[in-house]
Write a structure and sequence with these properties.
The complex is a heterodimer. Chain A contains ten helices and 39 strands. Chain A is mainly beta. Chain B is mostly helical.
């Protein structure tokens, strides 16, 4: 008995030291269609913002499928000819490979695609898909038979001809239906684009923006529960009168009052923070909350947004990626929705200064119970290559949560920085259901990356929760989970839409380190709380709201 | 009987050294060196460590051309009573007489460097340098000699010879012409100038000015007198003379150049531009005119106009760090950092002046070479560890790269060398704040003094420490001074919100947005 116990302890300690690495398996997985974003020569801002990635289980087989949004070219737009580029839906074959089922499912998109969000907006148990475009958005309703229907017109969320960016669903009025927020980026005349020349650090570039353009308005759509939405932007207090350049929105209950609030990252403008007033309206208080600007009181080029409780204090924190020579920003939630920029103290400031960031998310890649950080990087100006120190293609970054509120750059040891590309959207999922989190990256003008986690499931224990609402929305978006294991608490929220133009695996994955006994408390949207004690680790649990 | 004997004995007792010295001095003054010599020899035997006696003996022997014993006695003076500049001067003269220019230069250099008026040390040093083939040094020494004796045509003549040898035909001609004009000056004027110089050296400026008023209205004599007044810290009087000289002869390089130089020294850089430009046009080869014009242009921020003359000057003196710094500044301020780089890289090799290295940091940043700029700043720190600006440059560069932790020791070192320096206090405070060490940051923000950035930083750290009332007080006080600063309103909005004063927070947000929209 003692010998066996010793062996177990030894095995646990050994696995705890095993390094976790990532390997690109996109080719093996047959996820290889090139992501188009304008021409190779980037003459316009429309061509440099890339597109998003969505993980969702469209066929409810328990395996995450992958959706990659594709852009287009100006020539294609002007010609109005049938699209030559398509978004791609890859069905997970459960053996490490995927099959492109775009045509079969009818999810190819149209026009110039940017973001995607996967959410069961009609509560029928099948995850639907929203694609945001330059131009009218597209809402695909999942029929549940392996196909999707374009219900944009009926839904009323097309949004007109402006440039739409990173949308997000949440049930802001707690009526059980998922509502939708779509940020507007800017107005761009694709028919007669203005060829601009500006200077970036002494280098002449052309894809200038967003300053100099007119911003596009944001929109809040309330789900009527019958397949339609109503534009309630003005009524809700979210009218974007300043027309800031909205890039990505993320819903979460930042002040822990049980109601979803909204953070909107605006490019080169102050970020918005809409605090839910519980009456269908919001109060914008980004400046007062400390989220509008960085620590130095300056606007950021807020591209990607990661939300998570990195220090386990029960309050959701926010991480924002920014432009080159400007550090990415970690906002610590000081409680009640007041934030402080602690980027450098947390160790995320200095390593991110040289890069230009896009997608970002908190995820526990090494299953030690602490949320780590991923950033997808890549420049907007190809002209910088050889002219200044910044480069167009940049490495991915992985910052490991070392505890006590600090991060350590593990990009090299994990191998994520081995490849250099101009990355944009990214999202994580345990696509091979082996107990550790992988992630996919959309690469502008290149093939996507599918980074398989190697060793995370041996580095620590894990548990995965798939939540299903009954009184709350079916997908349980907005549900807040408190997991306690080994005396340590972790907090997570089910979200639909975050990172950059992307959606993560909606199942909540928790790393447990060496702990194996797990207690879970779920606060469902609408207020009901349920507790589950002694959940078994190393497996997935589907929990249906009682 | 005994008292009489005592009296006779007293009258016949040997003389003391002081008495012998006094007696010898009288002979030296009468230039009766043969008489003085034995007296001094006896004095030295009586008092072998008496430097005054040894010096006078050496001088007497020098005048009698007994060079070997003169050398020995002067060397003794140098050992016994350093720095013994006068003795060194004569040792230098002796070395020149013995055709040993290298030794002469070694003796004369400290004399010239002392800045004191020791005979014609600069002129002698110039001769030694010329004999050694060190023309630039000889020219510099002659120019110093001319500054002390601006009436001396012979000095200008020697200068002309050196210029000619160096191939500077125009400069040689100018020097020769000046020599000719000075040599044509009246004897009275020359004596006036010499006597004026003497009076100024004796600290009698009023008498010197009175005497100088008698000088003839000739450009060269006016310039010479102006040079004397300028060197004697009588700038207004010097300026008037140069103006008069220039008015008399607009083709006089010396008049125009010295007029410009005097204006520059008087803090009238923009007025100096015209005469200096004219001087350079009269004598394009003049290094002094080019450099001085460049300096004047930089001082009145006419950077474009500074570049050409400074480039000209730099061609002749590429290793001059001050010149390089001026030229690089002109390039940087005209947005041409690329052109500043090679100038600064070359000048940075000088180990005597940190300015080129510090400007190199700026130029590298301007060309987006931020990592190389850090390397340059680090090099400045290593080469000039006692100069606070080098540590400050390194600290600021590290901050630019987001490396706040590494910047802290550099800020701390700056403050060690320059306690209380506001920008360093602010920088250190920011670095501590970024590291989350808010309590430690407070003291440094307060030490940074009454500046907006310090108030903002202080407030932010107070917010982080939850000392909201104090943060509020800081921000409200600063707003009293800077109502138009959006960042202050932003931070105050944060404070009010955390204090539960929602309406006040909203108002501050509104004000901040209004200011940002402007």
């Amino acid at each position: 008995m003692i010998r066996r116990l010793a062996a177990l302890v030894f095995a646990v300690s050994l696995t705890a030291q095993m390094p976790v690495t990532f390997r690109d398996v996109a080719t093996r997985a047959r996820v290889t269609d090139v992501i188009v974003s304008g021409g190779a020569v980037k003459n316009y801002v429309l061509e440099v913002n890339g597109s998003g990635v969505c993980w969702f289980d469209f066929d409810n087989d328990g395996w995450m499928d992958l959706y990659l949004v594709n852009g287009s070219t100006l020539a294609q737009l002007k010609s109005k000819a049938p699209a030559r580029t398509s978004n791609h839906l890859y069905r997970n074959n459960r053996d490490g490979t995927f099959t492109d089922v775009t045509a079969k499912t009818g999810t190819g998109g149209r026009g110039w695609g940017f973001g995607c969000v996967a959410a069961d907006y009609d509560n029928d148990g099948h995850t639907d898909l929203l694609v945001t475009n330059f131009g009218p958005n597209v809402l695909y309703r999942n029929r549940g038979d392996g196909t999707f229907a374009d219900v944009t017109a009926k839904a009323g969320i097309a949004g007109g001809s402006v440039w739409h960016a990173g949308a997000a669903f949440a049930d802001y009025d707690l009526d059980g239906n998922l509502d939708l927020f779509v940020p507007g980026y800017l107005e761009f005349d694709a028919a007669n684009p203005e060829f601009k020349t500006c200077e970036y650090r002494g280098v002449k570039v052309h894809a200038c923006g967003p300053l100099g353009y007119k911003g596009a308005p944001d929109a809040l759509y309330r789900n009527n529960g019958d397949g339609t939405f109503t534009d309630v932007t003005a009524r809700s207090g979210m009218l974007d009168t300043k027309l800031y350049f909205g890039f990505q929105a993320v819903w979460d209950d930042f002040d822990n009052d049980g109601w979803p609030d909204l953070f909107v990252g605006n490019d080169s403008n102050p970020n918005y923070f809409y605090r839910n007033k519980h009456d269908g309206t919001f109060e914008e208080s980004g400046i007062a909350a400390g989220l509008a600007f960085s620590a130095d009181g300056k606007e950021m080029s807020s591209m990607g947004i990661a939300v998570g409780d990195y220090d386990g204090d029960g309050w959701m924190d926010v991480f924002v990626t920014t432009f080159a020579s400007d550090n990415y920003v970690l906002f610590h939630n000081d409680g009640k929705g007041f934030f402080s920029d602690i980027s450098f103290a947390a160790g995320v400031g200095e390593p991110t200064v040289p890069y230009l960031g896009w997608a970002a998310f908190f995820f526990d890649y090494d299953n030690d119970g602490r949320p780590d950080l991923f950033c997808a990087n890549g420049h907007v100006y190809p002209e910088v290559d050889g002219a200044i120190r910044e480069t167009f293609r940049q490495p991915l970054q992985l910052l490991r949560n070392a505890g006590k509120g600090s991060y350590v750059d593990q990009s090299a040891p994990t191998g994520v920085n081995a490849l250099k590309q101009s990355a944009r959207g990214a999202a994580y999922a345990d696509f091979d259901n082996d107990g550790d989190l992988d992630f996919a990256v959309s690469v502008m003008d290149g093939k996507p990356l599918l980074l398989e986690n190697q060793g995370g499931n041996r580095a620590g224990g894990w548990i995965r929760l798939k939540l299903e609402g009954t009184k709350a929305n079916r997908m349980a978006v907005g549900a807040r989970v408190k997991l306690t294991a080994g005396g340590v608490a972790q907090y997570a929220t089910v979200r639909a839409g975050e990172s950059y133009l992307s959606s993560n695996d909606v199942r909540l994955h928790f790393g447990l380190g060496a702990a194996r006994a797990v207690d879970v408390e779920i606060q469902w949207p609408g207020g009901a709380t349920e507790t589950f004690k002694g959940l078994e680790a190393m497996r997935e649990h589907t929990i249906r709201q009682r | 009987m005994l008292p009489a004997l005592f009296l006779v004995f007293a009258l016949q007792s040997p003389p003391r050294a002081a008495d012998l010295l006094r007696e010898a001095e009288a002979s030296i003054q009468a230039e009766q060196f043969s008489t003085a010599e034995p007296l001094l020899q006896r004095a030295v035997r009586l008092a072998p460590s008496n430097a005054a006696a040894l010096y006078r003996l050496g001088y007497t022997e020098y005048r009698l051309r007994k060079l070997a014993p003169a050398r020995a006695h002067f060397q003794a003076v140098v050992r016994l009573a350093p720095p013994a500049l006068n003795a060194r001067y004569f040792l230098g003269r002796i070395a020149m007489l013995e055709n040993n220019a290298k030794e002469a230069a070694a003796w004369l250099e400290p004399v010239a460097a002392s800045g004191e008026s020791i005979y014609d040390a600069d002129s002698q040093l110039a001769a030694a340098y010329a004999a050694l083939g060190a023309a630039p040094k000889a020219i510099a020494a002659l120019q110093r000699a001319i500054a002390r004796a601006p009436w001396d045509g012979a000095l200008y003549y020697r200068l002309g010879q050196l210029r000619q040898k160096a191939g500077d035909a125009e400069l040689a001609k100018e020097a020769f012409d000046t020599a000719t004009r000075l040599n044509a000056a009246s004897r009275e004027d020359v004596e006036t100038l010499m006597r004026t110089a003497a009076l100024l050296g004796e600290g009698k400026p009023r008498e010197a000015l009175a005497l100088g008023a008698n000088i003839q209205e000739r450009p060269d004599t006016l310039v010479a007198l102006g040079v004397l007044y300028g060197n004697a810290a009588l700038p207004a009087e010097a300026l008037r003379l140069f103006e008069r000289a220039e008015a008399l002869d607009q083709t006089s390089f010396q008049a125009r150049f010295n007029h410009g130089l005097a204006l520059l020294r008087a803090g009238r850089a923009s007025d100096a531009l015209a005469p200096l430009t004219a001087a350079l046009e009269l004598l394009p080869q003049s290094q002094e005119a080019a450099m001085t014009l460049g300096l004047a242009a930089v001082m009145c921020r006419r950077y474009e106009g500074a570049i050409a003359p400074l480039e000209m000057a730099r061609q002749r003196d590429p290793a001059n760090p001050k010149l390089a710094a001026l030229l690089a500044t002109a390039y940087l301020r005209t947005g041409d950092a690329k052109s500043a780089l090679p100038v600064l890289k070359q000048a940075s090799e000088s180990t005597s002046d940190p300015a080129p290295l510090l400007l190199l940091v700026e130029a590298l940043n301007a060309t987006e070479a931020t990592t190389e700029a850090l390397d340059a700043a680090r090099l400045a720190q290593r080469r000039f560890p006692a100069i606070p600006q080098t540590h400050m440059a390194a600290a600021q560069q590290l901050v630019r790269l987001g490396r706040y932790q590494e910047a802290r020791p550099a800020f701390e070192q700056t403050l060690k060398l320059s306690p209380g320096q506001p920008e360093a206090e602010l920088g250190l405070a920011d670095a501590l704040q970024k590291a989350g060490q808010h309590q430690a940051a407070l003291a440094h923000y307060r030490a940074a003094g009454a500046q907006l950035a310090a108030s903002l930083g202080l407030a932010r750290s107070l917010i982080a420490l939850r000392q909201l009332d104090e943060a509020r007080a800081v921000l409200e006080a600063e707003l009293g001074r800077n109502r138009q600063d959006a960042a202050l309103h932003q931070e105050l909005s944060r404070v009010y919100a955390r204090l539960g004063l929602g309406d006040l927070a909203a108002e501050q947000t509104r004000l901040a947005e209004q200011l940002r929209a402007r």
